[in-house]
């Protein structure tokens, strides 16, 4: 997202950036604080986290074989 700032649109661009950042960061902070409030959840998350598995999930790659 690129904002071209000039004198009359500068305030609106800053306001739009604030709104977009709120829409992204507030749910993330709420979820992280919820998951982090319980020691069992944190230990389970750390124990089962694998970067390669997470990246495959983000890219939509599924290599698991299931029953047909």
UniProtKB/TrEMBL annotation:
Q: What is this protein called?
A: Serpentine receptor class gamma
Give the superkingdom in one word. Eukaryota
* Membrane spanning residue stretches: 12-35
Instruction: Write one Pfam family the protein is assigned to.
Output: 7TM_GPCR_Srz
Statement: the UniProt record of this protein carries the keyword Transmembrane helix = yes
Keywords associated with the record: Membrane, Transmembrane, Transmembrane helix
């Amino acid at each position: 997202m690129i904002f071209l700032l000039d004198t009359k649109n500068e305030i609106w661009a800053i306001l739009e950036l604030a709104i977009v950042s709120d829409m992204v960061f507030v749910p993330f902070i709420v979820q992280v604080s919820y998951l982090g409030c319980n020691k069992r959840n944190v230990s389970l998350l750390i124990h089962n986290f694998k970067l390669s598995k997470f990246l495959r999930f983000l890219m939509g790659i599924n290599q698991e074989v299931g029953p047909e």
